[in-house]
Amino acid sequence: MKYSRKATAALLSGVLALAGMPVLEPSAAEGDLLVTDFEDGDVKAFSKRGDDDTSVIASCTEDAHGGTSCMSVTERSQGWNGPSVSLESLGCKPGVQYLATAWVKMKWYNTVRLSMQYTDEDGEQHYDNLAQIKSDGKWVQIPETKFSFTTGMKDVSIYIEGDDKADMWVDDFSLTAAPVYPIQEDIPGLKDVYADYFKIGGAVTAKELSPKSTQDLILKHYNSITLGNELKPENMLDMKATLAYYEETGDNTVPKVKLNGAAKIILDFCREHNIPVRGHVLVWYSQTPYWFFTDDYTKEGKLVDEKTMLKRMENYIKGVFEALEAEYSDVDFYAWDVVNEAWEDGGTPRLKGKYEDSNGSSAWVAIFGDNSFIEPAFEYARKYAPKGTKLYYNDYNEYMQGKQEAIIKMATDLKAKGLIDGIGLQSHLNCTNNATTDPFPYAQQYESALKKYTELGLDLQITELDVTYDKSVANGEKLQAKYYSDIMDAIVKYKDYISAVVFWGTTDDQSWRASQNPLLFDEKYQAKPCFDSIIDGISYTTTASTATTKKTTESTSETTETTTKSTETTVSSEKSSVSEPTLRGDVNCDKTVDVSDAVLLARFVAEDAGADITETGKLNADADGKNGLTGDDVVTILRIIAKLET
User: Fold this and answer.
1) Overall pTM > 0.90
2) Which of 143, 323, 558, 599 has an alpha carbon 20 to 30 Å from 371's alpha carbon atom?
């Protein structure tokens, strides 16, 4: 049986309801959202993007993707022109995850984007790209994309745009509420497993934090939070206030700082739950607006001289810490990345230039000629940071020899002057490389780099850990699990030098490298094999509030054990590999049969592109034994869950 999208939503809601689990409100799952094939000729839900948008939006009966009708968007004079849908008019709510997709055709070769527009609490407009795909005059599908928005966002809409003014056709548009997946409560919390080693943290953005499932995942597993974007210069700098001050006083050395609403959402969450925060980042070549470096604070202005830029840097760093102290003095900012990514892989400073024009170029280097701005950045951070906050230099490819040597020399000099407390090792790693099974870097290479950094006598933090794999490589998920295990073994070996391990994101679909599934949890908040692999070898005894952990690395005979009072419930984690049915109804192969299996199968039989099932999972999913996966198997699995069948 082939299900429509409306049937999919109904089936998923029914599955969740029967299992007694969180269910989307009917208005959000059905009538108030928008699923249309345009066969009725109705395009009223779509509007052009303001008076400057010249688009003409109409029903069209020529060359539809499906059926006989679609929506045409003609007379576009700019790439950003296109059909827009107001989320608030559909009854969409903050903190709920939504799914959007559509089939689109452009008149000629073009990049088609699904984007979101909103106004923040300060009245500023924002435009976020959610997904994109190429159309060469043929119908293409914008991938089903998950997104959400926060309480601070107003006038929220999603829209379709292109690179240029080519005519556009849209068909089979779907905007639905995403299934609500509860987290797994029957697995250990990572922060508890590694409690005697180091903090375990995650990076998160305000929109990513919106759903309750994400909040629950963080509270279970992490005791450190890094704001993914909200504390970066582009979000902290207030251009309007800066220009006003400059025009009033003639002083162009005092950039103004604001604490944006998105940052407050995360910091409020951290305060409420007493979660320590890694500040990221003060000085960076990227995500720092070019106007910050020019004499008149405009994109067209001339770069200022070194003396002026040093004053601006000091006032900016001072402003950041003052803004946070004023509202969040009770939040523990235990670490701050002062300078980020200043060195090339070969150990030289970045190229001079404007990063917007040439990715990797640095306006800091354009002004100073080299990396001589790093030391004063640490001086100012040491001067204004709260007492007890540790200061870090942070970089990626930290295992590349040239960069490694430059970082070590720089850190040695800063340490001698009492300006630096540690090194942040980003650790964006790859367990497969160019469709081969060779990782980059090798685990031994990564461990060798760790050893060299420990010799500095500074604190180390793994600040942005994720591990990608190429989907074209066989057994990619198994390779990822083994590689994650090897990397964590290396980190545990040097635990006495490492105070935090932070994963860059929460779930695969929200990662900046989402297409390569780099994190420990999938889009349904389910732990992946790589989660199991980094707790393999750890015996833990749990109650609601206590745990016993033990980790023995393969590379050493060193064993650390800590025991607290608890009930006698001991769990050992083991991985298995099978190529035949393992458990009737266990669609996601997590060794249990629960509502997540029914939901996954319901999405699969409804031909949801995001519902991937392994071969073993398909064998397990054939619950009624009649060959072929259908809605009847979903019903059978629900009966198994309800103990009406065995």
Assistant:
1) no
2) 323
